[in-house]
Structure formats: structure tokens, C-alpha cells
Amino acid sequence: MSSDFVNLTTENLTSEHLCCIIRSKKTHPGIEAKRQWLSDRLKEGHVFRKLNEKATVFIEYAPLETAWVPITGDNYYYVYCLWVSGSSKGKGYGRMLMEYCLADARENGKSGICMLGANKQKAWLSDQTFAKKFGFEVVDTTEQGYELLALSLDGTTPRFAQNVKNQGINKEELTIYYDMQCPYIYQNLEMVKQYCETNEVPVSIIPVDTLQIAKELPCVFNNWGVFYKGKFQTVNLLDAASLKRILKRE
What we know:
By secondary structure, this protein is of the alpha+beta class. It folds into two domains: 5-162, Gcn5-related N-acetyltransferase (GNAT) (Aminopeptidase); 164-247, Glutaredoxin (3-Layer(aba) Sandwich). The protein is 26% helix and 26% strand. The strands form three sheets. A seven-stranded mixed sheet has the order 1-2-3-5-6-8-7. Strands 11-10-12-13 form a four-stranded mixed sheet, with helices on one face. Strands 4-9 form a two-stranded antiparallel sheet. It is globular and about 55 Å long.
């Protein structure tokens, strides 16, 4: 079992494996888009720490003030993702990564760490049961069942921005907010564009390309948020079948 980890920097970003489960010998547009997204975020204090192997073992977090999420709070870290998959599970890597983030928070005098959760575990969220073993607690919720988990080091707590609580927009057509943090976004976006063009479905695709837009999002997730007829639908990536189901809703 390896315990050799590496943090991505502007110097090693182009050469390091990004830990995604996308496996491609050729240049993959989604992974390259992720590299570009990271190259800008690293300058803002974003941390991407990974096992120094071609494995899916990593944590991504950032100062809440520069984290691209509609959450407000002072002096916190926000954990975007903590992921250990495949044969790497059960070796203590998740604990090591979380302990690294906690040590970083304490060393830098942070007020705590927060992350996104839900009242029922969702496949794309980090393991909430695991987080709660470290002392994370629910400090805010939305009507759609999403939760903000926080481990406070000084008694203060962050909150969802008010725009998240509304979870509605003034657009009737299919509307998708996205950024390129997740390597799967690129190919899913292309599929949606092609489907909507072929089936003459009006669609508004809104890039989340500034911190201000991210902080003002009407949904909890910066990577991908789908609305239809003004109502929030999902943060899950779509296939043709799920897209059809959304478009049939009144």
C-alpha cells in the first residue's frame, strides 16, 4: 500500500494523472477542460491532493471565499470532492486525505471545513457517513433535501446562500448551468446540445465562468444544474432517457 501523495501545482498540472475514472490513451477533451479549470483555480488557493499513482484517490478543496459554490461563510475550507474508488478502497486513503485537509485548516487558522450533503446519500456526493465520523454536522438545509455539513473549529457555521433556497428561475425553456470542474461535463453537454438540436428543443446553456456567477447560482452544485419550466430538476448528468422524462413534465 502506497502512502505517497502529491499536490497539483501550476508546474506539474500538465503531467500529472487527474484521477478521474475516464480511461483514454488519447487526449480527452473533458480531462483537458478540467486541467484548464484547475490551472485558474490553483491561483485562488484550490487544493487538489492525490495518491501518486494512476488511481482514483483524491481530495479537492478550496477557501470558501473563492470556492465556486453558492455557500456563504467566513474563513472556512469547502471540500468539493473526496473520492476513493476501485481496488484502492479499504486502505485508509480517505482518512489520510481528510486528516490532511483538517491539519491544513488548523495550521492556517481556519474556522472549519464544510461540504455538500443530502438527507439521503447520493452517488455523486462524498460519503456523508464517513464525514460525520470526523465530527461533521448538518448546519443548513434546502427544501429539496440537500444539506450543508460543517466541522466547526471555532463555533461559527457557514450557510447556503439565499438564492439556493429558492431553487427556481425565470426561464421556461430547458436551462442548464455548468462548469468544467468535472471531466464528464464536456461530453454530456455535447449530447444535450445534439439532442436539443435534433428534436428542436429550446435550450439555454449557461456557463458558470466567474466566481460571482457561481456564488449566485440557483442550485447547490456548481458543475451541473438542470431547470425546466422555471423549476429545478436535477444536478445529475443526463442521458437521452432522463432528458426525455424531464421534457415531458408539466
